[in-house]
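Narrative of activities, Objective 1.

The group set out to show that a structural description can be obtained from nothing but a protein's sequence at a throughput compatible with the screening campaign. Below is one input-output pair from the validation batch, recorded exactly as produced.
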Amino acid sequence: MRLCSYIHNGRGGYGIVADDRIIDISGVLGDRFPTLASLLAEENFLAISTQAIDRSAEMPLAGIGLQAPIPNPGKIICVGLNYHDHMVETRHAPTQHPTLFARFADSQCAHGEPMLMPAASAQFDFEAELAVIIGKSGRNIQADAALDHVAGYSCYNDGSVRDWQVHTSQFLPGKNFPATGAFGPFLVTADEIPCPQDLAISCRLNGDTVQAARTSQMIHSVAQLIAYISRITPLSSGDVIVTGTPGGVGFARVPPLFMKEGDVVEVDIEGVGLLRNWIAREAIQSA
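Output recorded for this entry:
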C-alpha cells in the first residue's frame, strides 16, 4: 500500500495512492487519527486503512499538493557515512557506531516542490537515501525485532550545504537550512518491502546518474540502526530515520559538482518510488 499526506482546497489530509488517484481516508478516520503518523501507531493500520476506503472520496493525483509523507515528524534522525564508498570518498575513518545527526521538520520539502539552495552558499549537494518511517513505538528495541517497528519506507534527498557542514565537527549547520531535505513522494508500507537491505538506490541530476548502489552496501543495516537509536531515545510513530547515502556525492568529485538553480534532481529507490525536485535559490530575507 502507498500512503500520502496532502493539502487540497486548503485542507490537509492523508490517503491511499491507487495508480493516478488518491483515495482520501482522513475524512473517515480523522476524528480518531488526525494525522497519518497517529494512524501508523496502530499495529493493524493496514486493515483500518482498507476498511476506510470510500471510492466516492477519490481525487486525481495530478493537481493535489503533496506534503512530505510525515509532514511534521517528532524526530528526523539522519545517519552519516553509512556506505563504505562514501566513507572512503570523504576520507573518514571507520567508526564502530553509527554517525548520527538531526534534521528539523521545517528543513524538509515534498516531492515536486523546490529544494532551496541557501542564499548563504553555492555548495548545495545531493544525497540519495532510504527513509524509514516508524510505526510501532519502542525503546531498547532488539535488532531481530526492529523491522516489526517499521511502518514503511520512502525516498529522501538529504541535501547538504557543504561549506556550512564543515563549520564544526557536527553536521547540523549544513543540514538544516529551510527546504534543503526532500522527502517523498509516498510512504510504501513495510509489507511491500520485506527486505530493505536489497534495494537499488540511485540519484540523477538533470538526467545523468550521479549515484548508484544497493542498500546491501550499508555498513549499519536498517535493523541495526533502529536498535542503536532506540537505545538513545524512544522511537515514536511517525519518527523518520534517514539511513545514509552511497558514494558519488558532488563535493567529492574533481571538479566538484554542486546543484544549481534550475537543476532537476531525482532519487530513485527500487520498490519505493521516485522523488523529483527542482532547485531554486532561497530569497534573501532580513530580520
